[in-house]
Design a protein that fits this description.
heterodimer; A: 321 residues; MetI-like fold; B: disordered N terminus
Chain lengths: 321, 312
């Protein structure tokens, strides 16, 4: 017993060192909900010094905003220019003629449809598996007590400090031996079982009061029943975070597909657009920008709809998938 | 804490032999516990743990594309030490990290401090700042490549407008390519670290600030003596993650510069990729991967120890 206690303590400190302070997460959740604590400053008078301070802050804000958004604005505007107008000197920000045709031509001049289909298949399957196995395992780590559990979890945590780049070669050889490289399965396998989902869900499960599952246990619900009927419905926000982060991550992944998917029919949108840059002798950049814009739009929509969950997911786990 | 509650509620009545009930319960719990973890763990073990173990074996062999692997001892590592392009990659990785880590901390903390104020439109900016982080590397790389274009790019046009006669060649110049990459990666990451800092800032007690203000501390003094010490746990966490992420920087460089011009932006991960997947020297590439592995591990451990010492 004493031995287990010590093992648990080390695991706990290590895990807590590797996660953002919980108090911070909780307060951020409040922030995300839009219920900001009322500031005393509201009632205070604006002295001239404070007014200058506020103006300076707004100036800083505007500069930040310009720096942040200019690349996106430029991408979208360039996607509406004609091919040689993209590189005009001096730079014209607005297109001379608005070439909406780019958004029609990109579909016929590239394999966009195939790329998007592949990416969508991957993103959906990976997200489903990650959420399912991640939340299932997280319940085992958060609520079951058994020998070796903490050592096991420590293994999960420790891999955070191990970059994928350091073991991508043995992983590739392994998957090649299983004959799954150059199939969509390879990406599904390498993306779906990450430590990330387990980690995020465990963090969340631990905020759910133990009494709830205790009561259900007394009522005769099995552990699987508790997971299915109590934990899953209560963890919808965390599930949403995990779903969105995993989906976006898989959609944007470049390295995995680059290494595993050699066959052009299997390319994801990222690989496809990259090949569009390097393969054509004189790339039509306006067309390319139309493709890039199309590839960013789904992510932008998902992000705007679920930004609260993105922020919470990041703050809870401190990690990206 | 969890252990205490377990022994507290689970204490059996004195007549029943405690060990039998306990061991049976424990076995059942172990079984159920494992059944929860197993689906994920199988994938995790097979695709993460096994490759990490195999990596160490591979680094001592001359594993090549035909799967032929002879034990060569430390030969790969000896070769690494003498390999000029490995040394350049290692130095470039450190160079990148030394620029990227402080810059990102300063910018994202500044952004968090700014957005922690009650200003109009703050909610919008919190969203906007995060957007680059979830945009794909390919889109970012292509757009910034053109923004940085020496002759046609808006950035240099702006610099000329400011009166700088010979703006840098950015990605075409060996000196400026790495700073350009750092600018882009900082632009991309700042929203993410801003969120972590913003979360940390919420925990700084308002009373402390008020008290410091009463004592006549100005904004800067309050930042140094109240905000920063309170942010310590967040700062530690951010530094660890940021360091690991800097050491493994790869995809951005691969798409933006492919290590060029020359070897000006070639980094460790790229060296591994080139040796492994382009030249098919899996054994040699694994040795470089082991170096990356230990680099991340050692820096993480050092930071942990440092943090422990500071907490005492």
């Amino acid at each position: 017993m004493a031995e287990q206690q010590i093992e648990k303590d080390t695991a706990d400190t290590l895990v807590s060192d590797f996660t953002p302070p919980t108090a911070a997460v909780r307060s951020l959740r409040k922030l995300a909900d839009g219920k900001q604590p009322r500031r005393v400053a509201d009632g205070e008078k604006l002295t001239p010094g404070r007014r200058v301070g506020r103006i300076l802050m707004y100036v800083a804000l505007v500069i930040f905003a310009i720096g942040l958004l200019t690349p996106f604005v430029w991408m979208v505007l360039s996607s509406l220019k004609s091919a040689n107008e993209v590189f005009s000197v001096p730079i014209k920000w607005l297109p001379e003629t608005w070439v909406w045709q780019n958004y029609v031509d990109i579909w016929s001049q590239s394999n966009m449809l195939v790329w998007i289909r592949n990416t969508l298949v991957l993103a959906v399957v990976v997200t489903f598996l990650q959420v399912l196995t991640g939340s299932f395992a997280a319940y085992g780590f958060a609520r079951m007590r058994f020998r070796g559990r903490d050592v096991l979890f420590l293994l999960y945590v420790a891999t955070i400090a191990v970059p994928w780049q350091s073991y991508m070669i043995p992983q590739f050889i392994l998957l090649s031996n299983f004959k799954v490289s150059n199939t969509l399965w390879s990406i599904i396998l390498i993306q779906a079982f990450g430590a990330f989902g387990v980690f995020l869900m465990k963090q969340f499960y631990e905020t759910i009061p133990e009494e709830l599952s205790e009561a259900a246990r007394i009522d005769g619900l099995s552990e699987y029943g508790i997971w299915r009927r109590i934990m899953l419905p209560l963890s919808v926000p965390a599930l949403a975070s995990l779903t969105l982060l995993t989906f976006v991550n898989t959609w944007n992944d470049y390295l995995g597909p680059l290494i595993y998917l050699r066959n052009p029919d299997l390319w994801t949108i990222q690989l496809g657009l990259k090949s569009f840059v390097s393969n054509l002798f004189d790339t039509n950049y306006a067309l390319l920008f139309a493709g890039l814009t199309i590839s960013v739009i789904p992510i932008a929509i998902i992000f705007l709809l679920g930004q609260k969950y993105f922020v919470e997911g990041i703050a809870t786990s401190g990690l990206k998938g | 804490m969890a252990t205490i509650t377990a022994t507290g509620t689970g204490a059996p009545p004195p007549e029943i032999p405690a060990y039998r009930r306990h061991s049976k319960l424990r076995r059942r719990n172990t079984l159920i516990g494992w059944s929860f973890i197993l689906p994920n763990f199988l994938g995790f073990a097979l695709l993460t743990l096994v490759p990490i173990i195999v990596l160490f074996y591979m680094s001592f062999t001359n594993w090549n594309v035909f799967g032929k692997a002879d034990w060569v001892g430390l030969a790969n590592f000896q070769r690494l030490i003498g390999d000029g392009s490995f040394r350049i990659s290692l130095l470039n990785t450190l160079y990148y990290s030394v620029m990227h880590i402080p810059l990102t901390i300063v910018v994202s903390l500044g952004l968090a401090l700014l957005l922690n104020n009650k200003l109009r439109g703050v909610a919008f900016f919190r969203t906007a700042a995060f957007f680059p982080y979830i945009t794909s590397i390919v889109a970012i790389a292509v757009v910034w490549n053109l923004l940085f274009s020496p002759d046609y790019g808006p950035i240099n046009e702006f610099l000329r407008f400011l009166g700088i006669q010979n703006p840098p060649g950015w990605l075409t110049s060996p000196q400026w390519a790495m700073p350009a990459v750092v600018i882009v990666s900082t632009w991309r990451d700042m929203g993410y670290y801003m969120i972590l800092f913003l979360a940390g800032l919420q925990t700084v007690p308002r009373e402390l600030h008020e008290a410091a203000r009463m004592d006549g501390a100005n904004v800067w003094q309050r930042f140094l003596n109240v905000t920063l010490p309170c942010l310590r746990p967040t700062m530690f966490f951010v530094t660890v993650i940021l360091t690991i992420n800097s050491f493994k920087i790869f995809d951005l460089i691969l798409v933006m510069t492919n290590g060029g011009p020359g070897q000006a932006t070639s980094v460790l991960s790229q060296f591994i990729y080139r040796k492994g997947f382009v030249e098919s020297q899996f054994g040699y590439a694994s040795a470089a991967a082991v170096a990356l592995f230990f680099l991340c591990l050692i820096v993480t451990i050092v930071q942990f120890l440092w943090n422990k010492r500071g907490n005492k």
